[in-house]
Write a structure and sequence with these properties.
alpha/beta; Immunoglobulin-like; Rossmann fold; 2 domains; eight-stranded mixed β-sheet; four-stranded antiparallel β-sheet; 27% strand; elongated
Length: 438
């Protein structure tokens, strides 16, 4: 047993499920010794505020820490200027540890640094990690705290185990969907997702449809624009993960605002619920594509007497929903002429097909080998997402452009989360269905 093997077990979660009690104790000792060694080296402190605290502690530790934690409440992470750098800010995450704290991490910022542990300031309860972040970043992050706790073994002896916990950040008042958010000053401020009193409101109805393709009942929400008149030209948009589109993205408000501002034509939207079959439906399911393209869209066209064409019909979604939007349009280009994919999971393999080279998803290769279509694409991905996610979005973009498809491609400084997708969704709809203003 050595330090690196202990770190390997730690990276996979709790030590308790894998090692004997004696081996676990040895791991705890090795990791604690390594942590103490790092503290002894006294790493260089990048944050001006943490450097100042380091000096204040020398004068009066108790008073300095008390002032520091009171000032930090609801104001974290710390955000500070970087001398000579006008494109980035220094973001410092904080955690108030105790005698049981062994290791702290923050996941969600720039990917390359997202596995680096926090440092402990001297022998205080201040744990911190600083990293430079682009000024226009917005992202949700999460904390991982490993604590050494004492418990009684079956034989009555005392043993120490490492427990991994995932607390919220109690020092950050900016929260979204139960997670803490970093939002820097130049983050895009598009506010299409914020309901406006001046915008007329569309009608939102719940529906249930029996599907022959899936042999089950499917639930969805349909949005009908204000002052609907079937004699007026309309667009039709189908979104996957419809419950999230409504609750986390506020899609009905986005449509209300865009239609009121005449940025897109009057648009009917169908938000298809995931209803606990997401993993089955949104990973290259031909039956689900048949349901959407051959049953759901014709049902809506007939019910509302819509006059739509592939050029005015859109499939959209986030993550697996983005993947399925692209797959549905590729398989049914005479139904869907537009794809709006936000962080599409194009890295996914297709289990029933030959595997692509390592790191490459199946769908970009499928497009490369297929006949060209006229489908238009809006693709976006966060620069803080995994290399596989970003790389396969790049690959699909390049393949589509080689095939002659119109592709609008955007990247943002953020991660795989709705806090960014809800902001950019309106831009995607304008790009595909409307006419952007200069």
């Amino acid at each position: 047993m050595n330090l690196e093997s202990c770190r390997g077990f730690l990276s996979r979660g709790s030590l308790t499920a894998t090692l004997s009690s004696s081996a676990r104790l040895l791991c705890v000792v090795l990791l604690a010794s390594a942590t103490a060694g790092m503290a002894a080296e006294k790493p260089q402190i990048a944050s001006p505020r943490i450097r100042a605290l380091d000096q204040e502690i020398a004068a009066d530790k108790t008073a300095a820490l008390d002032r520091f934690w009171k000032a930090a409440k609801n104001r974290c992470p710390l955000v500070e200027e970087i001398p000579g750098d006008d494109k980035r800010l220094l973001v410092t995450y904080l955690w108030r540890g105790d005698a049981t704290t062994e290791r702290v991490e923050a996941r969600g910022g720039p990917y390359a640094a997202s596995r680096e542990p926090f440092a402990r300031l001297r022998d205080t309860d201040v744990w911190y990690r600083s990293e430079p972040v682009p000024k226009d970043a917005r992202y949700v992050y999460g904390l991982i705290v490993n604590r050494r706790v004492e418990r009684r073994a079956a034989d009555g002896s005392t043993e120490y185990v490492l427990v991994e916990e995932y607390p919220n950040d109690p020092l950050n008042a900016n929260q979204f969907n139960g997670g803490p958010v970093v939002e820097l000053p130049d983050a895009p401020k598009d506010a299409w997702h914020v309901a406006q009193e001046s915008a007329a409101k569309g009608r939102v109805e719940r529906l249930s449809l029996e599907s022959k393709a899936l042999a089950e009942s499917r639930k969805a929400t349909i949005y009908v624009p204000p002052e609907f008149d079937s004699r007026t030209p309309h667009a039709l948009a189908v979104f996957f993960d419809g419950d999230e589109c409504e609750k986390l993205m506020n899609l009905p408000a986005i449509l209300d605002n865009l239609i009121a501002e005449k940025r897109i034509p009057p648009t009917v939207a169908i938000l298809v619920d995931a209803q606990r079959t997401r993993g089955r439906d949104l990973v290259f399911s031909d039956a689900f594509v048949a349901f959407v393209a051959d049953e759901l869209v014709p049902w809506a066209v007939k019910k509302l007497d819509l006059n739509v064409t592939p050029e005015t019909t859109l499939a959209g979604g986030m993550s697996l929903g983005g993947l399925t939007a692209a797959y549905a349009a590729h398989e049914r280009p005479k139904v869907f002429g537009n794809v709006l994919s936000q962080s599409g999971a194009f890295w996914r393999p297709r289990p029933d097909k030959a595997q692509a080279p390592q790191g490459q998803g199946w769908f970009p290769g499928r497009v490369a080998e297929s006949e060209a279509t006229t489908v238009r694409y809006y693709l976006e991905v966060g620069r803080f997402e995994s290399p596989s996610m970003v790389g396969n979005n790049h690959r699909l973009r390049d393949v589509l452009r080689t095939k002659g498809n119109a592709v609008i491609y955007e990247e943002y400084n953020g991660g795989h989360d709705h806090v960014n997708w809800r902001v950019s969704l309106g831009r995607g709809l304008i790009a595909l269905l409307g006419t952007p203003r200069s």
